[in-house]
Design a protein that fits this description.
Blueprint (H helix, E strand, L loop, with lengths): L4 H6 L36 E6 L3 H18 L2 E6 L7 H7 L6 E6 L3 H6 L18 H6 L1 E2 L2 E2 L2 E6 L2 E5 L10 H11 L1 E2 L5 H10 L3 E6 L2 E8 L3 H15 L10 H9 L5 E4 L4 H6 L4 E4 L13 E9 L6 H23 L2 E2 L2 H4 L2 H4 L2 H11 L2 E2 L7 H15 L5 H19 L1
Parallel strand pairs: 1-2, 1-3, 8-11, 13-15
Antiparallel strand pairs: 3-13, 4-5, 6-13, 6-14, 7-11, 7-12, 9-10
Helix pairs in contact: 2-11, 7-8, 8-16, 15-16
């Protein structure tokens, strides 16, 4: 998707009841920071202001948990909701000294911009045990080797299939092609967010990630693997004729919802419509590619962070930890937000929900969208060249070169 499209999609995952029942037997408890002597300055009451980008029922969930923390710690918490999703508003407010102590519910690909401006506090190293969380979560919140946010939940896409048309989802590439030819397959093919999975699965990458630091001079979208990925995408249209070159997400979704095709790529935001339409669907991991690897999907993380301008950073981090530990399971029930804590993901009651379990599996093995400002130079060149590729107006080799050249031009304008 273009840079903010996936966020819009995530705001539409109002799939209440989708994951009902996963909470049974998964009770969680959290304790605020250890008690301190009465003369300790940290013991004094403080007011913590939090901006929340979670809305409606989720906002009430965050607000309730925050008030619990306030009562337990003797502090005051003010939760302010942002209904417009104006993520960049935080930068102006923080720089002027009028920003919040913390922000909750921020998509992770905004972090690099704020970190570059010096507006994010580094997460205390002893706040949590990192091994308790899936690795992809920490990759998403690490900027220049520093963890600058708390990972709250993760999101990605999967292979949807009609169980009447496709009793058993494909596991190998040959099985996938065979089923697609017989039962039909479509997705928003010119959308970089979705098609990137086939590029990355073959060995392509946006920027080389060196232990939490992206090298924007090392763009892996024209290597041998990336070219193989472009060929795969072009073959979907030109060789196998699974879908027209101008197919868009709504058309592909409509074909699947009307039961005209057997397979479709999307995320949990489409579960509720399919259930309402009585589509006999399930979701599955992507089949193994010809190289023996799985397509590697883009993963989006919802995060929470503390402002570097806050005078109450320790308390703000303690609050965010409490919110994570006391909202994750309910957020899963309310709007299909997939937790990032292993204890929840490993719980039998979570695994009973097929949709949640499969998406969590795919996301855990996926690739977080780069969280640096230079990712802005990726979406348009990739989208435009995918259109030329699927229309047969470009070759995989030419698309590879043009994408990288155009990205470099775009990055140069950002400096």
């Amino acid at each position: 998707m273009k840079r903010n499209s996936w966020k819009k999609a995530l705001s539409l995952v109002a799939t209440t009841g989708l994951l009902a029942g996963v909470l049974a037997g998964c009770a969680s408890s959290s304790k605020p920071t250890d008690e301190k002597p009465a003369n300790d300055p940290a013991k004094k009451s403080s007011k913590i202001t939090v901006w929340s980008y979670w809305k409606e029922q989720e906002f009430e969930l965050v607000k309730s948990a925050a008030q619990e923390w306030a009562k337990k710690t003797g502090n005051e918490v003010e939760i302010v909701i942002d209904n417009n999703n104006e993520f960049q508003k935080y930068a102006a407010a923080a720089q002027s000294g009028k920003g919040p102590d913390a922000v909750f519910g921020m998509p992770h690909d905004n972090l690099g911009t704020f970190a570059k401006a010096g507006l994010l506090a580094e997460m205390p190293k002893d706040l949590v045990n990192e091994k308790d969380y899936v690795d992809v979560a920490w990759k998403a919140v690490t900027v220049e080797g520093k963890k600058v946010a708390f990972p709250m939940s993760m999101e990605t896409y999967a292979l949807f299939y009609n169980k009447e048309k496709v009793p058993n989802p494909p596991k190998t590439w040959s099985e996938f092609l065979d089923i697609a030819q017989k039962q039909g397959f479509m997705y928003d093919i010119n959308n970089a967010y979705f098609s990137y999975a086939f590029i990355a699965g073959n060995g392509g990458y946006v920027f080389k990630n060196n232990n939490g630091t992206y090298d924007t001079n090392d763009i892996g979208l024209a290597n041998e693997g990336a070219i193989k990925g472009y060929q795969t995408i072009q073959d979907f249209v030109k060789k196998y004729k699974f879908m027209p070159a101008d197919v868009v997400g709504d058309i592909a979704k409509g074909k699947f919802q009307s039961k005209n095709i057997g397979m479709f790529i999307s995320g949990p935001w489409d579960v509720a419509p399919f259930k309402k339409a009585n589509v006999p669907f399930a979701v599955a991991p992507f089949p193994t590619l010809e190289n023996g690897q799985k397509p590697k999907t883009f993963v989006g993380l919802q995060t929470a962070f503390v402002s570097s301008k806050s005078q109450n950073q320790d308390k703000a981090w303690d609050l965010l930890k409490y919110l994570n530990e006391n909202t994750s399971k309910k957020a899963l029930e309310l709007s299909a937000r997939i937790p990032v804590k292993k204890s929840i993901l490993d719980d039998p009651s979570f695994k009973e929900n097929q949709v949640a379990a499969v998406i969590a599996e795919i996301a855990s093995a996926g690739e977080p969208m780069p969280n640096i400002p230079q990712i802005q130079a990726f979406w348009t060149p990739m989208g435009n060249n995918l259109k030329l590729l699927t229309q047969g107006k470009s070759t995989p080799e030419k698309a590879a070169k043009d994408i990288v050249d155009q990205m470099k031009q775009g990055i140069a304008t950002l400096k």
